[in-house]
What we know:
Order of helices and strands: HEEEEEHEE
Shape: elongated
Low-confidence stretches: 15-22
Radius of gyration: 22 Å
Number of helices: 2
Amino acid sequence: xxxxxLILLMLFSCSMKKKRQEEIKKSNIVNxxxxxxxxxxxxxxxxxxxxxxxNDHFVFIRKSDSFEANVSTTIQLFDIAKDSIIMQESxxxxxxxxxxxxxxxxSKMFEFSKEVSLSEGDYNIKINLQDLDNNNR
Length: 137
């Protein structure tokens, strides 16, 4: 009887651990969407790139009345046919949250949108987000 109880307890604890791992995976949200609109006036595709990442990916530093994370973003567009980078932009942002819980949130998002115009072709998009406050880069 004791053996059965121990086996059931082990199975239950393993299933709880698996459920917790699934919750962690759900909170690690990174979302990239693109939308293409063809412009007949310029014969170009206007591409809208939307990027979202949850706050729990960043290290926030406590300030006097808020928490801040410093982020550097680089976006590259690579023309596959020409085997070259056709656009690269970098910028820095500061994410500010009033409450500590919002810094660990899987639902609060840092997001940006970028619009570019491209001729017809095949391209790769590379987005690099670097947490400047994290020593484990």
